[in-house]
Amino acid sequence: MATDQESLRALEGLMNEFFGSLTTNPRKRDIETILGNFGQQRGAWKQCLYYVAHTHNSYVSMYCLTTLENIINKQWVGLMPEERTEIRSTLYRFVLENHKVAPYYIRNKLVKLVVDIARLSWPHFYPDFFTNVLSLSRSPDTVVLCIVFLQTISEELACPREELSYSRRTELRRLLSQQVPTMLTLLSSLLEGVVEKHKNAVTATPPPSPTHTHSQSPSRSALSSSPIQTGTLSSMFDSLESGTSTRMAFLLPPLDTESETIALLSLNCLTHLFSWIPLSTLITPHLLNTIFLFASLGADPQ
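C-alpha cells predicted for Importin N-terminal domain-containing protein:
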C-alpha cells in the first residue's frame, strides 16, 4: 500500500501531465476520471489536507482545495463531528500559517472554505468564527487577512446559496446584520489608520502647484456618529468647503505598498457591504468623510 508521500508524488505527476503541452485530450479525460473517482472516496478529505500541507505544486493545491470545497458543500452533514472539527481547524490553521507566502488565489480559496464551513455551522457548531476573524485585525501581520475574510463573509453569507433552507438563509442574514456595525467601524478605523500613518510626512511635502487641489478632512469635532438625517449631507459638504480654522487640510504622499493594499481591500469590502446593508440607518457622516477623502486621493493626478 502506497504511503501518503508516495501518493502525493503520484498526484503531482498526474497534475503536471494533465497541464503539460504534449498531453492528448483522451489522456486528459482519463486523468479527470481518476481524479474524480478519488474525490468521491470516503476519507478523501484527510488525504487532501495532507497533500495541501506538503506540496509546493499549485495545481495539486487547487485540486485538493476544490475537492474539499465539494466535500464541504455536498457531504458536510454526513461527516462525523470530529471529522468536521478537524477539517475546520486544519483549514483555519493553514490560512493563518500561509496567507503571506501563498499565492493570492490559494489564500482566497482557503478563506472561502473556512467561510463555507461557517455558512453551514455558525454559530451553533462554530461559535468563535466571527470572534476569530475580528481578532485578526489586532496584528499588522494579519490585518490584510482580516479584510479578505470580511469581504468573503459579506459575499457568501449575505446572499447564501439556494440549496440552504429558507430558514437558514434568513438566519444567516440576521446574524450577519448584527455584525455589520462592528465591520463598518473596523474598516473605517483601518482607513483612518492609513491616513494617520502618512500625515506626519506632510511637513516635508512641498507646496502644491496652484493647478492642483488639496485633499481636505473636517475636524474630528465636526464629525457625527449618528446615522445620516435629512440635510446632513449638504451640511457635511459645506464644512468641507468652508475656510474655518477647524478645517484640516493636508496632502498625502504616495501610499506605501502595505497601506495601499489595506486601503484598496477596505474600500472594496465597503463597496460590497453597501450593496446589501440598509444605508440609511448604518452609514454615518464620519464614515462618508473617510471614504470621500480616499476618493479625492484617487482623483488627484499626483
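DSSP finds 13 helices and two strands in the chain.
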